[in-house]
Backbone:
């Protein structure tokens, strides 16, 4: 069975140690399992039979989008069969529409947004241009959803809540969006209330083992496994360990195949 990991992160070799050290300092109770380099990610993929991983860049400052794009294009050029890159823009970037068109024209499928690391509220008026322009030029959006282990005392704890993301869906037509962490980390009752059954994809990272198994299975059933994707959030989780958790839940072979591969392939519009 082919496997896609829809949610991973990596950094250029020259900054990976510094970036990982900074991120680990924000998550003292959660040590990374990987080094944060593409080379290390590929090793984990080989060890766990993951065929394709989506690497998500995050522009944490205005103007970073072009450097992230250049690096991701280099990664894609070397590992086109195994890596799907998600670029990023920052809500305070100038000419966001032009940036998104350059990302699209470069052959990138989608962008990653993170309300905490980028300091925005998911349904704020000033962010709507990103969603609207992404929908217009057919760029998918993967957005961090729910709370975040690196921001335990966030001054706006609901900035990425399922309810706010539902508001985005109500306001933007044609948006192709994937919400991380089964729709909202540690906000899963709200996921069931606001997102289950909506035109949105979800992925499994930091849900398996963090939420009640019964609730996980209920969300999969009611949202349908066609809209649930496997994700590890590597380098924070080992995809092999996450796959073992998923396989232990008693899902049917057909539902497992959808979560491991078909749902992500549909979201990424992969052919073959």
Residues:
């Amino acid at each position: 069975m082919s496997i896609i990991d829809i949610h991973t992160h990596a950094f250029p070799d020259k900054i990976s140690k510094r970036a990982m050290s900074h991120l680990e300092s924000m998550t003292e109770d959660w040590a990374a399992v990987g080094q944060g380099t593409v080379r290390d990610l590929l090793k984990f993929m080989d060890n766990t039979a993951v065929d394709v991983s989506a690497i998500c860049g995050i522009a944490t400052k205005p103007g970073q989008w072009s450097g992230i794009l250049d690096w991701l294009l280099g990664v894609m050029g070397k590992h086109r069969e195994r890596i799907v890159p998600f670029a990023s823009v920052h809500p305070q970037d100038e000419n966001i529409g032009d940036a998104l068109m350059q990302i699209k024209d470069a052959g990138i499928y989608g962008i990653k947004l993170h309300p905490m690391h980028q300091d925005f509220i998911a349904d704020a008026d000033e962010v709507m241009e990103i969603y609207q322009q992404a929908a217009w030029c057919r760029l998918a959006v993967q957005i961090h959803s729910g709370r975040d282990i690196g921001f335990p005392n966030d001054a706006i704890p609901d900035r990425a809540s399922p309810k706010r993301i539902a508001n985005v869906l109500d306001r933007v037509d044609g948006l192709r969006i994937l919400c991380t962490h089964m729709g909202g980390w540690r906000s899963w009752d709200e996921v069931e209330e606001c997102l289950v059954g909506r035109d949105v994809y979800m992925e499994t990272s930091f849900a398996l083992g963090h939420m009640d198994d019964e609730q996980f299975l209920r969300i999969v059933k009611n949202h349908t496994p066609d809209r649930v994707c496997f994700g590890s959030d590597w380098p924070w989780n080992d995809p092999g360990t996450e796959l073992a958790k998923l396989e232990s839940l008693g899902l049917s072979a057909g539902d497992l195949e959808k979560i491991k591969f078909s749902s992500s392939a549909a979201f990424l519009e992969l052919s073959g």
Notes: The two ends are 14 Å apart (CA to CA). Residues 4-267 form a domain with the TIM Barrel fold (CATH 3.20.20.140).
